[in-house]
Amino acid sequence: MEDPQQRRFWLIELIAYWEGRLNTRHLREFFGVTRQCASKDINDYRDICPGNLRDYCPREKGYIPSPDFQRHYISTDVAEYLNWMAGLSARALPAGATYSLPNCVLRHPARNVTPQVMRPLVRAIREGRRVEVDYGSISNPNGEGRIIVPHTFVNTGLRWHLRAWCEKNRQYRDFVLSRFLGQPDVLDQSPHTAEADIAWNTEITLVLEPDTRLTPEKKAVLEHDYNMEGGQLCLKTRAALASYLLKEMQVNTKMLDGRPEAQQLVLVNEDDVKEWLF
């Protein structure tokens, strides 16, 4: 069983390392402890890991990690922070919970995301600010400067990306976290909020059926597998995430696989949702 103190130290490092500021509120809200207990935990951590956290900064209303911050309880994988934030981490279970079972999670390769990238993005999301970034892509591998207004971190299954307004393209787009280069600069506030992102706020339904080329017996297996009703699987999703969901379901909308056993599922209402697909 994990040491409760180490669990608190883990959260201290996680917040300080990835967000760049820590205060007692984080511990009080997560562990349900008093301000005095939270302060003691932070002071105990500073004693055990001297030099990691600077003295309390009244201007920032918290403890700031030092430039020479050394990790003792967390990894360098940003998914550890994002999974905790999204409630996907085993550490997000209530303290003392006894209902967990042995489990195994498929681990994807860690993406190269640094705290220097994350901290400004976290701040920009929380404060509704514009961010000047340097972003690399397959079409522009050396990077390209642009200004974005981020509003949500998104896990597509294989990787994390950032949903943001792009001033260059004048539309909301997805940016892969591991392709940001250097350190983003936080600018002023912007009116381009999540509420203005039409694709993000539009809910659509993807209707999937077993590939029509399959035998009735094979279709029945899939219908049972996905708990279909009337031979269909209806998945509600944000329009902006529809293509990612189809990819996760291994549904190819560009062309049918030559083998129906490989294709398995097909999108039957493509005409209704094609404006949202890419």
Provide structural commentary.
There is one protein chain. The chain has 278 residues and is of the alpha+beta class. The chain has a 5-stranded antiparallel β-sheet with strand order 4-3-2-1-5, covered by helices on one side. Strands 7-6-8 form a 3-stranded antiparallel β-sheet. Residues 93-101 have low confidence and may be disordered. Helix content is 32%, strand content 21%. The protein has helices at residues 4-19, 24-31, 35-48, 78-85, 115-127, 198-201, 216-225, 242-248, 260-263, 270-273, and strands spanning 129-135, 144-155, 160-166, 171-176, 180-189, 203-210, 233-238, 265-267.
Helix and strand arrangement:
Blueprint: H1 4-19, H2 24-31, H3 35-48, H4 78-85, H5 115-127, E1 129-135, E2 144-155, E3 160-166, E4 171-176, E5 180-189, H6 198-201, E6 203-210, H7 216-225, E7 233-238, H8 242-248, H9 260-263, E8 265-267, H10 270-273
Antiparallel strand pairs: 1-2, 1-5, 2-3, 3-4, 6-7, 6-8
